Amino acid sequence: MIFVIAEMVLALFNKLGVIIILAFILSKIEGFRKLIIKKKMTFIDKVILSMLFGCIGIMGTYSNIPIHGSFANLTTIGVVVGAILGGPVVGLFAGSIAAMHRYLIDMNGFTAVASSISIIIGAVAAAYVYYFIKNKLSHWKTVFITVVITEIAQTLLLLALSRPSFEGLELAKVTLLPMMFVNALGITIFIGIIENIYSEYDCIAAGQAQKALKIANLTLPYFRQGLNYDVAQKVVDIIYDAVDVEAVTITNCKEILAHKGIGEDHHIAGHSFQTQTTREVIETGKYKVINTKESIRCNQHYCQLKSGIVVPLKERDRIVGTLKLYKTEENSITSMDIELGLGLAQLFSTQIELSKLDHQKKLITEAELKSLQAQINPHFLFNAINTIVSFIQFDTIKARHLLISLANLFRKSLSHHQDMVDIEVELEHVASYLEIEKARFGDKLQVKYDLQTNIFCKLPPLILQPIVENAILHGILPKKQGGCITIKSKKDKKDILLEVIDDGVGIKPDKLMILLKEESYTRSVGLSNVNKRLINLYGEDHKLQITSRFNEGTCVLIRIPYIEEQHTSEMEGVVA
Description:
The chain is an alpha+beta fold. The chain has helices at residues 2-28, 30-37, 43-62, 75-86, 88-105, 112-133, 140-161, 165-223, 229-242, 276-284, 293-296, 335-376, 378-392, 396-414, 423-441, 465-476, 509-514, 525-538, 564-575; strands at 65-67, 70-72, 247-251, 256-261, 288-290, 307-315, 318-327, 421-422, 445-451, 458-459, 483-491, 495-502, 545-549, 553-561. The radius of gyration is 38 Å and the shape is elongated. One of its GO terms (biological process) is cell wall organization. It comes from Clostridium formicaceticum.
């Protein structure tokens, strides 16, 4: 008996060698490697793996040793490995394929039913094990126990279903230990070979992560300047030199900012997108992998770029552009390329957001200093005090109100260190300023308020005062008979609308066109600062909107995004 068992073990070892060689060959095939390391397999991926491991199970069946009217085999290897690597679906499908084959090739054999059912049991056991190890392939003890359970189940079924029963018993005595030992060893070796794929990709991933951090470190000084043509060109140069791709592109939401590599003749900075895929990524906010030239859908049919990944760049939750990595061979974007693209995009998005915050703080500081200088410069202070003194002589109550307004103005100017303030605080600040200016200019300056009640929102500090000051100095005062300034507030579906309207001298069309662009023009300095702050906080859609008719007046509209949570938190604070 011992001699027969030893002889069978040796024979199974010889058969096992073929399967191990197959495992080694599979581990070197790129398509198989990509399937194995996928974090999320598609249904097609699972079907392919099921058929592959089902075929390995069939190969194990044909690697049999005839004995006592049946045969010992290595069918379990393909089924169990398939379930452990691919999950329950792969294991059950592969098991079904191998079990059906096992039954059909020996339909009249007294072990056909028992062996076929035991293969399915092995698949179920391995599928159950999959949830415990989840691609952590070093759990060899768990794998070994799975094989033992499968072989014991097959033996018990063999004893229960065999007729005559004594033949089943004789077969079990000879085959149980050899099949249990060789199948367990084969599965362990098979998985060990596959485990090297994970180790290799882990090393590559570590290298990619290090590369991404290096690129992020090199690009950080540039992104601090914001996302523009010069910055984008320097960044794509760095990426192109560091990454194994044929082209790199950075865009904003409307046009190409920079392109380096193949396709420079038609992917030109300042031009609109050449690919429909870029538009889709900006619209959906989800990255996209392109595997064929047709999928890229470049406007130029001769374009050599045939695969790539397009990843959105974000500032907070707002899409501000895309990062694109291209190659000239189809289906050449690997999982490592995807991870690198996503990692770079995330790092760049963080850098862009930080640059915006830095720029916003700088603008706020400039606005505070400018406003503070305007409020406390000797000329303003002298005029304000003279105005109050003149009222003391004939209207002490008015003089007291003006002193309170001046004090409030100074206090609010000196305390504007917050990034955001309540709309009521900003309106109070403007009201104090207007109270003093109205007292100075008398009937030449009229002020009206049209403010909707129950508006709760936060907005940047010192955002209204420069606009009101601009309206008085350049709109009302140059008009001989003076005029009126109206301040409005209301809420529409998405935004809080703030308007500063004057019926002054207005702005000539040629000046209106460059008002927010040319900071050297004295009138536009305050407006330009406010406009930049709004764009940096809320995006281009919330820039200042200025309408004006020469000799009729000007309207400046500010749109602040209305966030429901602000209203809720305000109300909760009141209730508390």
